[in-house]
Every structure is written in structure tokens, then in C-alpha cells.
Predict the 3D structure of the following.
Amino acid sequence: MSFNFVAGKPSHPINLTPIMSGNFIGDIDGDGTDLENVSHIGQSNAAEGRLVFFDSTTTGLAGNERNIRGDGSLTYNMSSNVFTMNSGVVFKRTQISSNHAIQASEHYIGCNHTASIIVTLPVASGLASGQTFTIKDESGIAHTHNIRIIRQGADTIDGQENITIHSAYGAVNLYSNGNNKFFIF
């Protein structure tokens, strides 16, 4: 293992093991299996095309990290910048029964309502370009109790200010341009 730190320095090694503390910017060559008490926010190892994810409580303890190394199910091609998932994907589902303002962290909005409701989109400029939402009438009564989807500010939805789901079990898929528009797909 070698160290290439921009800031910080190792203290005197004990048994040739460097002891470090403080904030460091740089990289560590190696798989990191011999590191102890290291806090992580997230890590990517571009040299190997590998992604490493950590939960919010990780302090270098085994079991908190999820290491993805091109096992065929999840791969990242660094030259084309394409992440491939040959596996299932789970998106967040939020069930609502009354008016609701969609949060950027949501994906599926399942409407289980007994009266007409309004679903408010987030401001498009606060989203990533290409971020998607699906709004679905899960109750099957949108033909009598509509689901009105409204924008904020000057954003548009396929050039319109608002759209309405008025078919039983109807749904709409939307994506944002990350600036000022939503598009139906």
C-alpha cells in the first residue's frame, strides 16, 4: 500500500505501520482491507472502475460498505461513462391519500385517494437533468376523483401549466430537464 496525500502526514510508524490522523485529501493504492477506524462519506476507485458505497454510520467497520467490482451484474465503463445494471432496481414509493408536494428523493407516487387531489411537482431547477417521477392512480377512481398535477413557478409540463389524470388506474411518467421543464414520456 502506498500513500499519496495532498494534506496531512503520517506520524512515526510502529512496526512499519503508518499512523495518521486529521483530514486528508488524496488517494490510497490498495484494497483498504488493512485500514482501521477510517470514516467515509463515499468512495470511488476510478482506477479499477469500482464503486464503494457506505451507510451513514460507517467508521471503517466491516459490513457497512457495499463494494461493487464488475461481477457482471453492475459494471461501469470509464471510457464511455456508462453504468450498466444487469439486475433489479428498487425505487422509492410514496403512498399518498391527500394533496402532496413531491420531494426530490421520491420516485413513485401511489395515489390511494377518496377525493380529488393535487400533486405538486418540485421546482425543475432543483432536480438533476433526467430525474424521473411516476404518478399512479392506485385507487382506481381517478375517473371520478381526478389527480391534478401542478408545476411550481414558471416550469411547464409538456408546455402546459398543469395536467390531470382522469382515467381509472391511469398514470403519468415525467422527467425534468433540470432547469425549467418537465416532459411526459
Summary: The chain has two domains: 2-85, 93-184. Residues 2-85 form one domain. The first strand starts at residue 2 and ends at 7. DSSP finds no helices and 17 strands in the chain.
